[in-house]
Write a structure and sequence with these properties.
Helices cover about 70% and strands about 0% of the residues. By secondary structure, the chain is mainly α.
């Protein structure tokens, strides 16, 4: 584990301390969990953006999804009652 000094605005510090007191969880744990959650979200967004960019760039090319495979997947989803994302 590494230490990291992070100056906080007074209001942020006050809210963090209040939440730590309310939940009986150390403020450093709450801050660590919040930072970890934010970093996971940034990674998720970056992955989504990279996939979207790749899909847009390869749309209609030989690298695009096979139409028969796409139809089979849609049919499977319809039959299984699952919704596509």
């Amino acid at each position: 584990m590494k230490n990291f000094h992070l100056p906080l605005p007074e209001q942020t510090y006050t809210l963090l301390r209040a939440e730590a007191d309310r939940t009986q969880v150390p403020a450093t744990t709450l801050a660590r969990e919040a930072i970890d959650a934010w970093l996971r979200e940034q990674a998720r967004r970056a992955r989504h953006d990279a996939i979207s960019t790749y899909a847009a760039e390869t749309a209609g090319s030989d690298l695009d999804l096979d139409r028969e495979l796409e139809s089979a997947a849609a049919e499977h989803l319809l039959k299984s009652g699952r919704k596509a994302k």
